[in-house]
């Protein structure tokens, strides 16, 4: 498996894992609220659910380093690997743990507020219906994603951690290629092509750069150096350039293709969300809203099938070259 495929697979699994947790938490939130369970009971659930073992990440990082090392010569030079300074840092596991704690705290705070409110309500079904409809915006989407100095969108724990994980793995791959190139005294690089590349990186795909050119483009040794490629959440990987066999695939995807990929991912998350809401509405006895969600889901599944079909065609075209 290539480094790129490995990173893609890992990141996708992470977003799915967290997405599942978020949806399970939402259901528990409303089941507890319906029965007016104490904040302590909600806290017990959160403590158990968000004690996540992150050793999988360390393992993935190590495996990606191994995948990069293709030339035997590197092994004998391993000892001096750590002397090369100033590469972009890999984030520690603490970032993940902190984001999980922040989220659990937020859920608990909102739960405590809603619990105080529901006790004063005559029509509890109506009250809970409103709360289910606004839950995503009120409870989950609170992590700002900055772009060009502005808050571009609000993310939830699942998308935030998938970005964080992607950055960790992609930087591992970049750093390793960069270090190995110094040890192997080869200062030519290639930015690998991949289907559904983002608009920032399209123009660099499949091109060969010298070390100096690469540093000019990405500002690799600069702390806030993501200028063009290796922007936040970048999916590109870097290899040392050895010979023409690496040039077999020129990039064949476009910005429109990238948007399609983004659309599919967002639609999948919306489907998971609607499914959760459908169950929550059933739980509180609002069949009308549950039915509304059911109909939306049917329409969304059809749309997603269409997009996936288009993506398959694009992928096939890409791998033909
Ligand atoms: Zn990119």
Folded structure, characterized:
By secondary structure, the chain is mostly helical. It has one domain. It is 63% helix and 7% strand. It contains 10 helices and 5 strands, in the order ααααααββαββαβαα. It has a 3-stranded antiparallel beta sheet with strand order 4-3-5. Mean pLDDT is 86; it is low at 72-86. Bound molecules: zinc ion.
Rounded mean pLDDT score: 86
Decide which structural class fits the backbone: mainly alpha
Low-confidence region ranges: 72-86
Give the tally of β-strands: 5
Q: What ligands can be seen in this structure?
A: zinc ion
Largest sheet: 3 strands, antiparallel
Strand numbers in spatial order across the main sheet: 4-3-5
What pattern of helices and strands is seen along the backbone?
HHHHHHEEHEEHEHH
> What shape does the CA trace take?
elongated
Q: What Rg, in angstroms, do the CA atoms define?
A: 23 Å
First-residue to last-residue Cα separation: 18 Å
Instruction: Give the helix proportion (percent range).
Output: 55-70%
| Domain tally | 1
Tally the helices.
Answer: 10
């Amino acid at each position: 498996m290539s480094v790129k495929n490995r990173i893609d697979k890992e990141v996708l699994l992470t977003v799915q894992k967290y997405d599942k947790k978020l949806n399970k938490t939402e259901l528990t939130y409303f089941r507890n609220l319906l029965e007016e369970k104490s904040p302590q009971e909600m806290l017990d659930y959160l403590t158990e659910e968000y004690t996540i073992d992150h050793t999988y990440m360390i393992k993935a990082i190590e495996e990606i380093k191994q995948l990069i090392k293709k030339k035997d010569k590197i092994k004998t030079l391993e000892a001096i690997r750590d002397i090369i300074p100033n590469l972009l840092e890999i984030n520690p596991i603490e970032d993940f743990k902190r984001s999980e704690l922040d989220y659990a705290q937020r859920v608990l705070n909102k739960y405590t507020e809603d619990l105080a409110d529901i006790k004063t309500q005559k029509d509890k079904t109506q009250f809970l219906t409103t709360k289910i409809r606004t839950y995503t915006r009120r409870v989950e989407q609170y992590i700002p994603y900055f772009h060009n100095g502005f808050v571009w969108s609000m993310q939830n724990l699942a998308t935030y951690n998938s970005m964080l994980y992607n950055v960790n793995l992609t930087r591992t791959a970049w750093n390793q290629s960069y270090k190995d190139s110094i040890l192997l005294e080869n200062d030519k690089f290639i930015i690998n092509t991949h289907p559904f590349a983002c608009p920032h990186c399209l123009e660099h795909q499949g091109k060969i750069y010298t070390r100096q050119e690469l540093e000019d483009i990405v500002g690799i040794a600069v702390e806030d150096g993501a200028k063009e490629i290796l922007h936040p959440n970048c999916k590109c990987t870097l290899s040392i350039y050895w010979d023409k066999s690496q040039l077999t695939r020129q990039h064949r995807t476009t910005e429109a293709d990238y948007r399609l990929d983004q659309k599919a991912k967002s639609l999948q998350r919306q489907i998971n969300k609607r499914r959760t809401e459908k169950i929550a509405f059933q739980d509180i006895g609002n069949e009308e809203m549950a039915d509304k969600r059911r109909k939306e889901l049917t329409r969304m599944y059809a749309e997603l099938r269409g997009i996936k079909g288009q993506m398959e065609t694009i992928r096939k075209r890409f791998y033909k070259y």
